[in-house]
Amino acid sequence: MSCSTDALELLVDLGAMDEETNDLTDLGYCLSALSLEPRVGKMVIMSNLLGCTRSSTLMATAMSYKSPFALPPPSMRKASDQAKVKFSNGSESDQITSLHVLKQRDIMYKRGSLFGWCRENFLNFSAINMISDLRKNASRELESLGFPPSSESGFHNRNEEYPHLAFHQATICAGLYPNIAYRRQGDINFTTMSNKKAKIHISSVNAVKSQPLSTKCQVEENEVEFILYGELVKGKAMFTMENTSHLVSPLPLILFCGQLRVRPYQSQMTGAKKAILSVDEWLVFLCDADVAAALVLLRQRLDSVFALMTSDPSNYRNRLTQTQLNAIQTLDQVLKFAFNRGQSRSKQ
Q1: Is pLDDT at 299 greater than 60 in this prediction?
Q2: What pLDDT, on the 0 to 100 scale, is given for residue 11?
Q3: pLDDT digits over 130-163, tens only?
Q4: pLDDT tens-place string over residues 26-85
Q5: How far is the C-alpha of 260 from the C-alpha of 279, rounded, in Å?
Q6: Mean pLDDT, rounded, for 304-327
Q7: What is the DSSP letter of 92?
Q8: Phi/psi of residue 346, each to 5°?
Q9: CA 70: distance to chain centroid?
Q10: Looking at residue 147, what DSSP letter applies?
Q11: Does residue 44 contact residue 147 with C-beta atoms inside 8 Å?
């Protein structure tokens, strides 16, 4: 009974099921046609809005199967970890690490040197080929719904020519939420949305000692550091998070996740008028009132685009208004700006 209840709650949280009637929404019907787990399926559909469907389909299939990395013997653990870090290329994300692996896999396959390359980099030859085959299934399923082919150029892949981590992080966030945890300055471990203490699983690239998330949190005193995770596993002492991804900026949480609410706030010390943005009454952000108003308006317009996209996948692009197109253009700009700003602050 608990499993059924959890599954229904997940669909409601994703926006795939009406909470009162239990009827599937347009998003729910789309997800029901995909062989992907619902959260991963939403991630792929959302990537059409974010313009990175090709990359998202690769990450989604890897998330739905298993890690492309082989389990090394203890004596080669350090070399295996170094290979993971190399493929992560500073992304601090297991999903994006898998993306880089699969892109390189295609190159090695064409060269005819795939097997040797897998051995050199501690990759599971069978798993990596299975993931490559599964992405074709995911693409076909999306096409059957009316979405454009994930491998072709177009509006749905407009940010693939010059890929930016901001779009990859945003699509991961849209799919994995509410699987998110945070920590504050000086913390080693994280706290989940359900107030569970958790650490990063040893299999994650973010658990490697050279990675920033493997050490104490270094953010400013009034800030928090976010991490997304695929699964939460109960261990002997505490929970562990598998398939993790560092979320550099909280902006994707505000624009794509949960129920967004805003309320006014006035500083008692300065009298400055501010606003409090909250996501599901759990994640709370303080910002200038005009910034909050702009973000709420942008969220409303993006929600309308996503609703149109899931109700009419084959023709939504032709039905977008100029206001909605402007919102998508603004989205591309603010995601990159927020990511770059967050990354530069973390390096200070």
Answers
A1: yes
A2: 81
A3: 998 888 899 999 999 999 999 899 999 999 988 8
A4: 999 999 999 999 999 999 999 999 999 999 999 999 998 889 999 899 999 999 999 999
A5: 5
A6: 96
A7: -
A8: -70, -20
A9: 24
A10: P
A11: no
The C-alpha atoms of residue 185 and residue 83 are separated, in whole angstroms, by 29
Q: Where are the alpha helices (DSSP H) in the chain?
A: 2-14, 26-32, 38-50, 53-64, 77-88, 94-111, 114-120, 125-145, 165-176, 251-256, 289-311, 316-319, 322-346
Residues 6+ apart with CB under 8 A from 198: 181, 189, 190, 191, 192, 229, 232, 238, 239, 240, 241
Which residue bears the tokens 């693939």?
160
Give the pLDDT confidence of 265-293 residue by residue, as tens digits: 987 777 788 999 999 989 999 999 999 99
- AA identity, residue 104: Q
Sheet holding 260-266, edge to edge: 260-266, 273-279, 283-288
Between CA 77 and CA 221, with CA 91 as vertex, the angle to 5 degrees is: 105
Distance, in Å, from the CA atom of 320 to the CA atom of 247, rounded to the nearest integer, reads 30
Whole-angstrom distance, CA of residue 18 vs CA of residue 20 = 6
Residue 67 token pair: 């890690």
Cα 228 to Cα 259: distance, rounded to the nearest angstrom: 18
C-alpha 256/C-alpha 263 separation (Å) is 19
Q: How far apart are CA 342 and CA 170, in angstroms?
A: 14
The rounded distance, in Å, linking the Cα atoms of 227 and 246 is: 5
In single-letter form, the type of residue at position 177 comes to Y
